[in-house]
Design goal:
Helices cover 54% and strands 4% of the residues. It has five helices and two strands, in the order H-H-E-E-H-H-H. By secondary structure, the protein is mainly α.
């Protein structure tokens, strides 16, 4: 009974260790995103909390002041490219995501189209020259951890059991049977 119990316990410890490691890593990723100490922390309040409506207190809190930009950026033009169109004027206030200008990318688009055509012709040559097929493989980290843990379990079970049986044999009897 002890001979079988040891490999099973070892496999359980390894499995628990892998599971704990995965759980801690997943939990730390979540805590970093929700942390108020992070630079990217965003504090959100409902409109009813800001104005006092729906709280039942009967008071209306108001906030006054001026919204100031957190940072001002200086935008410079890339000297290697030419501007196709400018969408804002100097000194104009812009919002997040607003397009400022666009580069003339005709040459880059032509080069990209030529590269895509070259790759398509190479792929066509590969597929027509031989009778092979391409197989795309994606391996996830949890699947890798499970595969390694399972392989270790199999190795422990089928490595320890015969060695423990051999360790319990009398050497003279073992040599006599050979």
């Amino acid at each position: 009974m002890k001979k079988i119990l040891i490999p099973i316990l070892a496999a359980a410890v390894i499995g628990a260790g892998c599971g704990t490691y995965y759980y801690i890593n997943q939990k730390s990723d979540l805590s970093e995103r929700a942390s108020s100490d992070s630079e990217d922390a965003v504090y959100v309040m409902t409109i009813s909390a800001i104005t006092g409506y729906g709280t039942g207190s009967g008071t209306i809190e108001t906030y006054s002041g001026q919204v100031e930009a957190q940072e001002t950026l200086s935008i410079t033009l890339d000297s290697d490219r030419t501007i196709d169109e400018c969408f804002v004027e100097a000194g104009e206030t812009v919002t997040v995501g607003q397009k400022l200008f666009s580069y003339d990318t005709k040459d880059e688009e032509d080069e990209l189209a030529q590269d895509i055509a070259d790759q398509a012709s190479l792929l066509e040559q590969l597929s027509s020259s031989s009778n092979t097929q391409m197989i795309w493989i994606a391996i996830s980290i949890p699947a890798s951890i499970i595969a390694v843990a399972f392989s270790m379990l199999i190795g422990i079970i089928f490595g320890l059991l015969p060695s423990m049986k051999a360790a319990n044999l009398d050497p003279i009897e073992a040599l006599r049977r050979e």
